[in-house]
From TrEMBL:
Pfam families tied to this protein: Peptidase_S9, Peptidase_S9_N
Name of this chain's protein: S9 family peptidase
Domain Peptidase S9A N-terminal, chain residue ranges per copy: 6-415
Region (Disordered): 1-24
Keyword Protease: yes
Keyword list, A-Z: Hydrolase, Protease, Serine protease
All residue ranges annotated as the Peptidase S9 prolyl oligopeptidase catalytic domain in the record: 475-690
Family classification: Belongs to the peptidase S9A family.
Domain of life of the source: Bacteria
Hydrolase as UniProt keyword: yes
InterPro entries for the chain: AB_hydrolase_fold, Pept_S9_AS, Pept_S9A_N, Peptidase_S9_cat, Peptidase_S9A, Serine_Peptidase_S9A
Signal peptide from the UniProt entry: none
Length: 692
């Protein structure tokens, strides 16, 4: 396909000895010693590393980019044609106004707007297209002040997730001179509108401190409200729906602790309940009572307890919604007279609303085999209306308001597909694959009706399987570009997520991590067994921790796959977990294990880490996408993996690494630029399936 040769990365000896075991890592040099500076300023990347990454980009462009240009443009046009470009969210009322975001035809970024609550002329509060300029623009959200005269908004200019917070005067439409640099995204306003709170990042890019900014003062004078001493815990800030308390959360993936500050009186924070290993909790407040979602006392799938604000400790926790095995409570909202919980049972989500005055409950669910359901929080506490979203692989998203007093359900918005969409042309199935240990792994399928189940169809099998994240069975305008070409689109709801409860998560992390990989392989084998596809016709896709899954299954069962697509893949697991200076490493130890202190963890991670297990054998075609300023999966992980694959594998199948030199973990900014990246992966899948 090209006259240029694939780049060959230099090998430079680099040994590391742990627990009496020595490894040589010849591609360690791709990790820039000044990586912290690179995150903030990509131009300081060392020249030899930049040269290699640009050579890989040139190889990608010559071998895949240019030859598929017309196909990618066609896919891009199809997906874009399914998006209503001039669109808006459903306005959310707050006091005298209703706030919303909307997009204009041709614009990459949203407008933040408001109207008078009962109708009237719209005011544009922020036009992100004007603020974005020509380079990368990561919008970190916007929060209006309680007095409705100001708005704090955040932007990241290079994909590193270092945000700058700006304060806009909504009367003049201009930003004040003061700003907050290198913060996490977002700000939480105090009720007096004279101050806000934000999370500060440390030198290793970890959110570790909450500061209070008083309007009119310098960032250097911002008081420290809370500082986390344990590098394994990340810090976040929020507000209860009642706006009575500022919340400060310290958490890793399995343990949490919450501190409160009176939003009216201010003062020092107080702890609700000190952290206990493997115990999580979050909370809302109503009339001096805390409503706490927790897995305390072996409530594996979580329960809801209450406690008085003035005596919030665990000794005073009283069950309100007791633990029920197999019913995972995902989220809780509390408004004036109601508690709303989002939960999953039998693999499907539902919303349950409890009247706190009499205990009566009503349930919102849908009859499809697979669907997605979500709560949409509003600004107001004193309300009897809740908002939720619904979609399925065949059904475009719908937004409903439910009046809790009358029971009336109002459809507020139906996702439009301008180029047309007929749900009756498609079929959604929820099947189960049998894992090697006997567990039933849910698999969601979408395909055109009338598909011959004779194994001839190609399939794209997507998986993630980490951190308890579940992959919703929702509607996607993008995947139709594969399904309409004869693909079966499948999501494997593998262990490591919480698709079947918290146990499903526990059995896919740490010592049980390899269940994630065997579940995914079992899903592929089920597709083959039932005739949905066949061996060598399945393209596997995953990103971030799902990219680690891609590396693992490519090592374990390379012959199964027509191709593998790894998006910002976490593939150098052992080296990353040994490097406690990296942003995510200490908080990740509960998820993967700590190979620094534990020889067992070291050996276990070394046995599956994709980079460490590349072998001299045939691999399927592989596409890898990365971001230079990615603070979550650093650019050198995919770069090292590809370098080792190219030097080791015995086949001549395609191997491409495309590093976005102007973006981070989320890929390109702008809604249309992101579609172009989707078109890359779909074109690769079609090539692997020999459909293009």
């Amino acid at each position: 396909m090209t006259d240029i040769a694939p780049p060959v990365a230099a090998q430079r000896s680099h040994s590391d000895t742990r627990h009496g075991m020595t490894r040589n890592d010849p591609y360690n040099w791709l990790r820039a010693d000044n990586w912290r500076e690179v995150m903030a300023d990509p131009t300081v990347l060392p020249g030899d590393i930049r040269e290699y990454l640009e050579a890989e980009n040139a190889w990608y462009e010559a071998g895949f980019g240019k030859p598929t240009e017309a196909l990618r443009e066609k896919i891009y046009s199809e997906i874009r044609g399914r998006i209503k470009e001039d669109d808006s969210s459903v306005p959310s009322p707050d006091g005298p106004f209703a706030y919303a975001s909307r997009t204009r035809e041709g614009d990459q970024y949203p407008l933040i707007v408001r109207t008078p609550r009962d109708g009237g002329d719209e005011s544009v509060l922020l036009d992100c297209n004007l603020e974005a300029g020509e380079g990368y623009f990561g919008f970190g959200g916007a929060e209006h002040s309680p007095c409705h005269t100001m708005m704090a908004w955040a932007a990241d200019r290079n994909g590193s997730e270092y945000y700058t917070i700006f304060i806009r005067d909504l009367d003049t439409g201009k930003d004040r001179d003061e700003r907050i640099e290198k913060s996490g995204s977002g700000a939480v306003w105090g009720n007096d509108s004279a101050r806000f709170y934000y999370v500060e990042l440390d030198e290793n890019h970890r959110p570790f401190r909450v500061r209070e900014h008083v309007l009119g003062t310098s960032q250097a004078d911002d008081a420290i409200v809370y500082e986390e001493k344990d590098a394994g815990f990340f810090v976040g800030a929020g507000m209860t729906q009642s706006r009575r308390y500022l919340t400060i959360s310290a958490h890793d993936h399995q343990t949490s602790e919450v501190w409160l500050i009176d939003a009216e009186k201010g003062g020092a924070p107080f702890c609700v309940e000190k952290r206990h290993e493997n115990t999580e909790y979050s909370l809302e407040e109503r009339d001096g009572t805390l409503y706490i979602l927790t897995n305390d006392a072996e409530a594996e799938d979580f329960k809801i307890v209450t406690a008085p604000v003035d005596a919030p400790g665990v000794d005073n926790w009283t069950d309100l919604v007791p633990h029920e095995a197999g019913r995972l409570i995902l989220d809780v909202e509390v408004i004036a007279n109601h508690l709303i919980r989002l939960e999953r049972k039998d693999g499907l989500p539902r919303i349950v609303v409890r009247d706190l005055r009499d205990g009566h409950e009503q349930t919102i669910s849908f009859p499809e085999e697979a669907y997605s359901l979500g709560l949409i929080p509003g600004y107001e506490f004193d309300t009897a209306t809740i908002r939720f979203s619904y979609s399925s692989p065949t059904t475009p998203a719908q937004i409903f308001d439910l009046d809790l007093a009358s029971g009336e359900r109002v459809l507020r918005k139906q996702q439009e597909v301008p180029s047309g969409h007929d749900p009756d042309l498609y079929e959604t199935r929820r099947l189960f694959a049998k894992a090697p240990d006997g567990e039933d792994v849910p698999v969601t399928l979408l395909y055109r009706k009338g598909l011959k189940l004779d194994g001839s169809a190609p399939a794209l099998l997507y998986g993630y399987g980490a951190y308890g994240h579940s992959i919703p069975a929702g509607f996607s305008v993008s995947v139709l570009s594969l399904v309409d070409r004869g693909f079966v689109y499948a999501i494997a709801h593998i262990r490591g997520g919480m698709d079947k409860g918290y146990r499903w998560y526990k059995n896919g992390r740490a010592a049980h991590k390899t269940n994630t990989f065997s579940d995914f392989i079992a899903a592929a084998e089920m597709l083959i067994e039932k005739g949905y596809s066949s061996k060598g016709r399945i393209v596997a896709e995953g990103g971030s921790a799902g990219g680690m899954l891609m590396g693992a299954i490519a090592n374990m069962r390379p012959e199964l796959w027509a191709g593998v697509m790894a998006i910002v893949p976490f593939v150098d697991v052992l080296n990353t977990m040994l490097d406690d200076t990296l942003p995510l490493t200490p908080p990740e130890w509960p998820e993967w294990g700590n190979p620094i202190t534990s020889e067992d963890d070291y050996r276990r991670i070394a046995a599956y880490s994709p980079y460490d297990n590349v072998e001299a054998k045939s691999y399927p075609p592989i596409l890898v996408l990365a971001g230079l300023t990615d603070p979550r999966v650093t650019y050198w992980e995919p770069a090292k993996w590809v370098a080792k694959l190219r030097a080791t594998k015995t086949d001549e199948n395609a191997l491409y690494l495309r590093t976005n030199m102007d973006a981070g973990h989320g890929g390109a900014s702008g809604r249309f630029e992101r579609i172009k990246e989707t078109a890359i992966t779909y074109a690769f899948a079609l090539k692997c399936a020999q459909l293009a």
